[in-house]
Write a structure and sequence with these properties.
Shape: globular
CATH superfamily of the largest domain: HUPs
Structural class: alpha/beta
CATH topology of the largest domain: Rossmann fold
CATH class of the largest domain: Alpha Beta
Strand content: 15-25%
Helix content: 40-55%
Oligomer: single chain
Number of helices: 11
């Protein structure tokens, strides 16, 4: 039985060629899941300049145009044997409307195209995608790059350096990645980006030199990684223990190996970390592929 029974796709109907529509359609087809497409429109400030009667007429005309387009698109999707429903609505607060839809529908997966935001803007305003990563109660599939609509290569990015709660998250990451790869007949790879900072090593002490500490810690981490890979039966040629800072290491790996989807974990952010964003959040703007956040 597929891990996906209900898919929720959020689109901006102004962007009619969004790859997220194609990704959601193909995933619904292979999984047998129902697909609900919610096209949410931010309120148009320009309409406030019109008279009350003209404003109402303009709003309805604008909505109807997008409804007609989405209805035609849904007909094509239905021909593929997919149970699809649609809606087009105004949204005063798009991100809150998305979370409200998730609460009411309880989908197995929220799908949305990555909304790229410039660095300067991110310094003052939390991007919508970051907000969803932090608050959405279901896995979030953020479509980015130009990969295949049905992924051919899925990477589960884990962290073996943490606590028991991190271990539980690793299990969820791998299970979600395994389910996606199985559903799409894709390769499943397991990856850990090992970043050993000097500050971390200094805390360990023990009279060992820096190089000895580095070598010992890396050996322990690699052992934990291989044990995790062994537990899930990941073939040796699909295990990747790489060195480097996670964001840059994952980005380079995704480029070199033509990865379609990276499955990562989401954690609650606090203090300064909440302001600058987590590894998963920054990955959105670095990797040439989609991100599935668990």
């Amino acid at each position: 039985m597929s891990q996906y029974q209900r898919l929720l796709l959020i689109i901006n109907p102004v962007l009619r060629h969004s790859p997220a529509i194609h990704h959601a359609t193909e995933l619904a087809k292979v999984s047998g899941a129902s697909l609900h497409i919610a096209a949410l429109l931010p309120s148009l400030d320009v309409l406030s300049l019109l008279e009350q009667g003209d404003r109402h007429k303009a709003r309805e005309s604008y909505l109807q145009d997008h409804r007609d387009w989405l209805k035609d698109r849904a007909k094509n999707i239905c021909r593929k044997g997919i149970n699809v429903t649609t809606e087009v609505a105004w949204a005063n607060d798009v991100q809150q409307e998305i979370l409200q839809h998730v609460t009411e529908m309880q989908p197995d997966l929220l799908i949305k195209e990555v909304q790229y935001e410039p660095v300067l803007k991110r310094a003052f305003i939390t991007p919508m995608d970051w907000h969803l990563l932090r608050h959405c109660p279901v896995p979030v599939y953020l479509v980015g790059g130009s990969g295949h609509a049905l992924p051919r290569k899925v990477v589960a990015a884990v962290d073996v350096s943490g606590t028991d709660s991190d271990s539980e998250l690793n299990d969820r990451i791998i299970q979600q990645a395994f389910g996606l790869a199985l559903q799409c007949d894709a390769e499943l790879h397991l990856l850990y980006a090992c970043d050993i900072s000097v500050a971390w090593l200094a805390d360990l002490g023990g009279g060992l030199t820096l190089s000895e500490l580095t070598r010992e810690l890396r050996r322990d981490l690699e052992k934990s990684f291989l044990e995790l890979a062994e537990r899930y039966g990941v073939p040796s040629d699909r295990r990747h223990f790489i060195k480097g800072q996670p964001v840059s290491a994952l980005s380079e790996f995704a480029n070199e190996h033509q990865v379609d989807v990276i499955v990562m974990g989401r954690v609650q952010s606090h203090g300064l970390h909440k302001l600058v964003g987590s590894t998963t959040e920054h990955i959105l703007y670095q990797v040439p592929c989609s991100v599935l956040a668990v």
